[in-house]
Every structure is written in C-alpha cells, then in structure tokens.
Recover the amino acids of this structure.
C-alpha cells in the first residue's frame, strides 16, 4: 500500500529536540534523525523569528490524560502502538444499519488522521499543568453557569426546531479549530501563518478564519466590544510569540469557560518543521486555578484550499427539511 | 475492498472516538432508508463542508432520475493531488448509503464503488492520485 503522504511522526520531548521520520506507510516506527543542536530559527526581513508557513496540529493525543494512565509520557514504542491502534480504529468499517454507519467513509476522502501529516507526541495528554494532565475542578460559579447554560438550551427546544438551535459549527460560523485556543478536530487541522512588520496573521483552514494579531503594544478592545474569537494582542518574548486574547462572548465556551476568559498562547519554533504551541487558560470564575496545555504544530503541504462552509452547507437545510417532513407524517 | 473490522481498542487509546462530522448525519439521513444506486456521474461539487456527487440513475422502467449524494470535505483530497478532473463525468458508480429524511433524491454515500466493484479510495489511490489501493 502506497500513500501519497506518509505520516510525519515527530516526537516532541521536554527539550526542543525532535526525532522526525518520513515513512512510506501509515504509522511506522520512527527513525531518529540527526540531532541538530546548532539549529536556530530564521528571521523575517524585519527581524522577527520566522513562524511563517503552513502547519497542522492533527494528533491522537487527547486534551486530558485518560484516567487509567498515570504518567506524563509514553515510551516511543507505546506511542507508536497506540497511534497504530487509533489509525486502525479510524479505518475500521461501521456496521450497516447502525446510526454510526449513516456517514460517508472518511477514508475515501483522505480524512482519517493517518493519511495526512501529523505531529505525534509522546505526551499522554495535551494538558501539562496541572501535572495530573486534567482540567482543574470547576468553581461553584462555573458549575452554576454550566447548569444554567444546559437549562437554557433545553428551553430553546430540539436542535431541529430552529436554525438558531443548531451549533455554531453546524451553522458554519465557528469551529473548535478556530479557537483560540486552536485545538485539532478530526480533519482539516491546517493553519497558515503570515508575518508582516507589526502583525501576525493566523489563517485557520476550517472555517477559513483569519486572526490578525497586532504586535505594536496597543491596548485590548474596550470591555464592551466582544467577539466570538476574542481580541488578540501579541508580543515577542525572546524567540517566542506570546498572544493574549480577551473580550470573548457568552456564545462560545471553551470547556465551559466564561466570556471573561484570559487566554495566553505561546508559539515557539523549536525545529525547522515544528512549532511548539502552548496555551494557558486563566478564568478564575470558571476554574479553581489556571491550566496549561501544549501540542506541536507540524509543517504541512500548502496551500490551504478555501473552506467556504456556509455557501455549500446543504446539510443544514436537509436536516431541517427532514425534521419538517417527519413532523408532517406524525401529525397526519 | 477492506474487510469489516471489529476492532477492540484498549481503554488507554490515545484519543476518544473523533467527531468526524460537522453535524449529526443521522439527523440528515435516515438509517431506516438504506439505498443502493447505480448511475453515472454528471457533476462533482468539490465543496465544503461536504462534497456532493450528482448522479443519473436509470430505473427498471428506463426512466432516468437524478440523485445528489453527499461525500466528504474535499480539502484533504486536494492536498493529496486529486482534482476535479480526477473523476470524469460519465464515470459509473454503485453507491451504498442512506436516503435523506425529507424523502427527496438525496443520500449520503456510505460507500462509493466503481461499476466493476473497485472501491473508490480517493484519499490515497484515486486514479491519478498516485496510490495503488483500489486500482
């Protein structure tokens, strides 16, 4: 079996040393490349560390550490075995006549994760702090808000009762990958970074969202100006791009966050092919303490094909039309 | 063609079962309406969030009926070298899937097969995509 794209398995360790392997098939044992300790990040013409290019954060690593794992890192052999199992699982065919089978076969469209570039990671969770790899407990206020949100959703009725009851992603307004923070989903986890003097732009493939981040030290937007993706401001700390985002809305909730979440992202190019992406979630009204996660972004093949989601979103129409048709049948 | 796999994944699996769809497909298509269509491709919309295959299907009475069949996001295919020309208009397909809940001639293509039974495997081995499987 030959695939156009072999998996690029990069193991990101505590130290920014990567072992990269280009394998011809799905998931094969990594062969350490020559460790290059003299590697330095190149500079843009105006002197910024160069983060530009096309990147993917596709991964099998979960945000939170599974409860039956009690160590921060897998061995390389364990990580490869688990990645292979996950790839086999994705390739497995569903049983005809079951709800899970009502779907196109994503392998026919190259959408299983092992068919694209991927940044494999020895970490057992993206969360690195707290050390148990899990989101800290919610505050009483956070729990109350979560309950109230669930009750409000219930009052709005079924998802098919109104287009507004469908999620932002189904309505092609915002996907998890857009963030921030930018977390991978199953497919199209691609990003383009462009730098100009004074700005960094991060284009997220799904749903074709550009985030334009000023670096000139300007203040955040006024508190009463709220945006789905918040308001981002950046600066450099050494070779690390630090981006602070505030001014979120109550329409999005990252893991149950409030509109006053303060998010700090850190982008560090640790190798020619890898950016280490780290983010800290600071939201004292939701969690008892801040928490931090990190995952690598791996260089991928350009370009990014426009994800013009809304224009082709026949699925939303079909879903609502189906619900109306079934209502007609049951009312007869 | 791949065999059905009943894979038991260790509980320690690196990730939960991923959310493939950007919406619930069973809300759009009816699990109780499995269909099998044989027809020729008249148009392939390589669009997001999901691509659509237009097929002309000839019924037993000789009448031709047009169907729209949903497939996956095309972005990764494009990255793998697939273009609009990879599949020619007139290509014959056998599609197993499920019909839309609204009862119209729309379906999700659970499996795309060429007329000779080869599995359409666009990801790594569509004609012209450089792979070998499915050829």
């Amino acid at each position: 079996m030959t695939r156009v794209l072999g998996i690029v398995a990069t193991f990101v360790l505590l130290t920014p040393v990567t072992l990269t392997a280009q394998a011809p098939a799905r998931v094969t044992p990594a062969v350490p490349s020559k460790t290059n300790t003299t590697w330095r990040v190149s500079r843009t013409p105006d002197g910024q560390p160069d983060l530009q290019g096309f990147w993917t954060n596709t991964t099998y690593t979960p945000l939170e550490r599974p409860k039956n794992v009690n160590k921060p890192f897998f061995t390389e052999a364990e990580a490869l075995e688990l990645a292979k199992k996950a790839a086999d699982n994705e390739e497995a065919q569903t049983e005809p006549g079951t709800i899970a089978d009502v779907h196109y076969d994503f392998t026919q469209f190259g959408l299983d994760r092992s068919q694209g570039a991927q940044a494999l990671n020895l970490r057992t969770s993206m969360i690195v702090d707290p050390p148990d790899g899990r989101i800290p407990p919610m505050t009483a206020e956070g729990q109350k808000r979560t309950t109230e949100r669930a009750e409000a959703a219930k009052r709005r009725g079924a998802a098919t009762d109104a287009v507004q009851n469908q999620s932002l992603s189904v309505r092609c307004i915002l996907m998890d990958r857009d963030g921030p923070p930018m977390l991978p989903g199953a497919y199209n986890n691609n990003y383009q970074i462009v730098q100009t003097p004074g700005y960094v732009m991060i284009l997220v493939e799904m749903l074709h969202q550009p985030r334009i981040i000023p670096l000139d030290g300007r203040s955040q937007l006024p508190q009463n100006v709220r945006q789905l993706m918040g308001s981002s401001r950046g600066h450099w700390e050494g070779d690390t791009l630090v981006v602070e985002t505030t001014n979120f809305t109550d329409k999005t909730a990252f893991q149950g966050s409030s509109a006053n979440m303060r998010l700090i992202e850190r982008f560090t190019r640790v190798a020619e092919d890898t950016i280490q992406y780290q983010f800290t979630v600071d939201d004292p009204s939701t969690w008892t303490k801040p928490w931090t996660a990190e995952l690598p972004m791996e260089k991928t093949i350009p370009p990014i094909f426009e994800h013009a989601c809304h224009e082709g979103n026949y699925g939303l129409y079909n879903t609502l039309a189906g619900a109306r048709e079934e209502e007609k049948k049951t009312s007869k | 063609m791949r065999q059905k796999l009943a894979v038991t994944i260790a509980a320690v699996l690196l990730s939960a079962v991923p959310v493939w769809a950007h919406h619930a497909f069973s809300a759009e298509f009816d699990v109780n309406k499995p269909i099998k269509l044989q027809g020729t491709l008249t148009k392939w919309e390589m669009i997001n969030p999901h691509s659509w295959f237009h097929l002309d299907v000839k019924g037993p009475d000789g009448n031709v009926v047009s169907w729209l069949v949903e497939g996956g996001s095309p972005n990764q295919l494009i990255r793998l070298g697939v273009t609009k020309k990879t599949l020619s208009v007139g290509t014959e397909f056998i599609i197993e899937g499920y019909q839309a809940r609204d009862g119209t001639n729309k379906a999700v293509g659970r499996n795309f097969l060429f007329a000779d039974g080869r599995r359409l495997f666009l990801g790594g081995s569509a004609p012209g995509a450089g792979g070998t499987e499915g050829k």
